Amino acid sequence: MATERRVLITGAGSGLGRALALRYARHGDRVACVDIQAARADETRALLPGEGHLALATDVASDDAMQALHDAVLAAWGGVDVLVNNAGIASGGAMVETTMEEWRRILEVDLLSVVRGCRLFLPGMLAAGSGQVISTASFAGLAGAPGLMTYGVAKAAVVALSEQLRSEVASRGVRVSVLCPAFFKTNLCESGIGNPQAMVVARKLMDVSPDTLDGVADRVFAAAQAGTFLILPTRAEPMRWRLKRWFPALYFRLMRKRMRSLSADR
Fold first, then answer.
1. Residue 244, in any domain of the structure
2. Residue 149 is part of which domain span?
3. What confidence score (pLDDT) does residue 260 get?
4. 242-262 residue pLDDT tens
5. Do the Cβ atoms of 146 and 259 come closer than 8 Å?
6. Catalytic site includes residue 24
7. Which residues pair with 7 in a beta bridge?
8. Residue 5 CB partners (closer than 8 Å, separation 6+)
9. 24 vs 119: CA distance, rounded Å
10. CATH assignment at residue 84
């Protein structure tokens, strides 16, 4: 019989966050469903089997709101065993199209929310000598693709943060994983900012993706359970990642060709 864990998931009101909440609950864990919208957090909690789950509304871009979340979870549970930093928003556009407002918004939500979660919940894991931090980045953070400037940079920083955090806590009983999926069908673009045409391309990539939400969630959950660090849960990305590492010039040419094709088809 597996030991029940206390699992906190941000962005649990829909998409991958909700799918992961279901999988942890089915595994027998208690899940704190965190979303910026209280109604969506409640909807996810109502779907979960088992008892003891929480639904909490929090703005992950706010220091004060995240501190309040931490205090509420500690009061209810005494701590967490698995932290899933999953909340995020999409953006698109070239560097010359970006605004400083866009940069600040994306970094606050997609990067600094991960920093806030780690700063607040990691000390309890280190004190216990066990735990896991799982953060959702994106293959955009590895791909170096055009037209995803703010989003790609923020997600690349999540990968770098996870790499450094893994080194810091590896000897202290805490595991670290980072997810880097490519496009699959979710509602991520509903919160998108930046160039609207970039969201059109993103939706097209979601529509033609062979990956489903359930398939991605199954692969993420299995890999996280195994303690895999870099999780590439969409089908084409493991080979694309190898291609970039081993044959970077070829990867660059193929990536540019694919992006030109997508732009021409808009």
1. no
2. 6-237
3. 81
4. 999 999 999 999 999 988 877
5. yes
6. no
7. 31, 82
8. 24, 29, 30, 81, 82
9. 23
10. 3.40.50.720
